[in-house]
């Protein structure tokens, strides 16, 4: 590897880290004030991303790889062994120094560290753990640390990562076993899931110990998360929602992140040539929300998919589900229990809590519900209020078209 300075390494390794969705801030237009253009600031700089701390605060993290060199050859990855990219590698000490320098200047509140695999999974994991250990023990660093762990590494090393990090993640990578076999033949779903199971047990033990003894050491208090690549293989949305739900249930994950596959330079011929629509990723996050906060089971979300198992792109999955299950509506907002209100398209958790609090004092009208929700157009066919009942609206064959038109009209 050619000798390059830390700034050049940062450029390469922050750019390489942007493919990890686990703490991504996306959707920003490209703007730059460098050179001849006017103004100040740039949205193109790499290296700082935003994530949410366990208490809900938005925090900025230095997001980098330890190295983008890798001995594995996962087809979908720009850093794979056979990829023709410029390589760089930080030492553990360099990452520690950079983190502290950025932290002292108030640029960041923490570190997100991942890595390609150098020499072996254990060696790489040792380096990652050494960064977190040194920050915590040598420098008393109290900021947020999110470490990507390598499932093939010695469980003792993964455990050590959990002792120093706030959050750890182990990527499942692809939604199906067959997809992983085809696109990342050196990885194994069984080994990934074993590592997740080990992490879950350690997080639970750590939580128990903290409840009993105030001085017990913290163990990954922000839990574990994972990431799935969407659109690199033939897995349908139904498969993806099913896999995510199983992972939440079995391993107590805090989050599953969905990352729309993006074609990479010098791509392997087994990959699709085009990325899936970004809206697909968005719909999957909405479906994920349905299972985590609205009480839907994965099998119910699957009712919103078409014959190919895909969620519609033009309407959100909760509305698609309601259109399929019209017999469950309308729901009387003045009487229905919380779990039924959460199933109404257009009513989020905050709106439902607002309805439940307000109806203690009076019967709610359509206008009252309109003030608590964002989209009365979406709601009207599905609710009953003191002054509104959708006569046969829910039975209309053209309800989907009507709603789509109205939602477009009201933006
Ligand atoms: S192991 Fe990770 S870094 Fe290496 S090729 Fe696979 S996905 Fe990329």
Automatic annotation (TrEMBL):
CDD domains reported in the protein's UniProt record: Radical_SAM
Coiled coil among keywords: no
SUPFAM superfamilies on file: Radical SAM enzymes (SSF102114), RuvA domain 2-like (SSF47781)
Domain Radical SAM core, residue spans: 54-297
PROSITE patterns: RADICAL_SAM
Lineage top rank: taxon: Bacteria
Alphabetized GO MF terms: catalytic activity; iron-sulfur cluster binding; metal ion binding
UniProt keyword list: Iron, Iron-sulfur, Metal-binding, S-adenosyl-L-methionine
Protein name: Putative DNA modification/repair radical SAM protein
Highest classification ranks of the organism: Bacteria, Pseudomonadati, Pseudomonadota, Alphaproteobacteria, Sphingomonadales
């Amino acid at each position: 590897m050619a000798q390059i300075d830390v700034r050049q390494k940062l450029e390469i390794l922050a750019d390489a880290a942007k493919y990890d969705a686990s703490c991504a801030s996306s959707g920003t237009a490209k703007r730059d004030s460098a050179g001849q253009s006017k103004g100040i600031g740039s949205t193109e700089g790499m290296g700082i991303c935003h994530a949410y701390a366990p208490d809900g605060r938005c925090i900025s993290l230095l997001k980098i790889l330890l190295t983008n060199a890798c001995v594995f050859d996962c087809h979908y990855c720009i850093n794979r062994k056979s990829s023709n990219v410029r390589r760089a590698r930080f030492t553990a000490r360099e990452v520690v120094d950079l983190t502290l320098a950025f932290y002292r200047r108030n640029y960041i509140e923490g570190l997100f560290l991942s890595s390609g695999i150098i020499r072996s999974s254990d060696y790489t994991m040792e380096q990652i753990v050494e960064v977190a250990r040194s920050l915590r023990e040598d420098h008393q660093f109290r900021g947020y640390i999110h470490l990507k762990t390598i499932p093939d590494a010695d469980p003792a090393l993964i455990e050590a990562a959990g002792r120093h990090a706030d959050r750890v993640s182990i990527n499942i990578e692809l939604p199906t076993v067959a997809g992983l076999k085809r696109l990342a033949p050196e990885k194994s779903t069984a080994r990934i899931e074993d590592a997740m199971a080990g992490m879950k047990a350690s997080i639970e033990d750590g939580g128990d110990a903290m409840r009993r003894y105030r001085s017990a050491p913290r163990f990954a208090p922000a839990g574990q998360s994972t990431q799935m690549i969407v659109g690199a293989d033939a897995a349908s949305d139904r498969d993806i929602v099913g896999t995510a739900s199983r992972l939440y249930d079995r391993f107590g994950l805090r989050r599953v992140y969905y990352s729309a596959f993006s074609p990479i330079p010098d791509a392997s011929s087994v990959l699709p040539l085009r990325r899936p629509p970004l809206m697909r990723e968005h719909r999957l996050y909405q479906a994920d929300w349905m299972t985590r906060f609205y009480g839907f089971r994965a099998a119910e979300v699957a009712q919103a998919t078409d014959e190919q198992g895909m969620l519609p792109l033009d309407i959100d999955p909760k509305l698609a589900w309601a259109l399929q299950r019209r017999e469950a509506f309308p729901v009387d907002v003045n009487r229905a229990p919380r779990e039924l209100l959460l199933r109404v398209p257009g009513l989020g958790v905050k709106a439902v809590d607002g309805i439940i609090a307000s109806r203690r004092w009076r019967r709610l009208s359509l206008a009252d519900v309109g003030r608590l929700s964002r989209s009365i157009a979406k709601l009207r066919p599905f609710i009953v209020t003191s002054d509104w009942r959708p006569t046969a609206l829910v039975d209309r064959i053209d309800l989907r078209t009507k709603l789509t038109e109205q939602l477009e009209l009201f933006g």
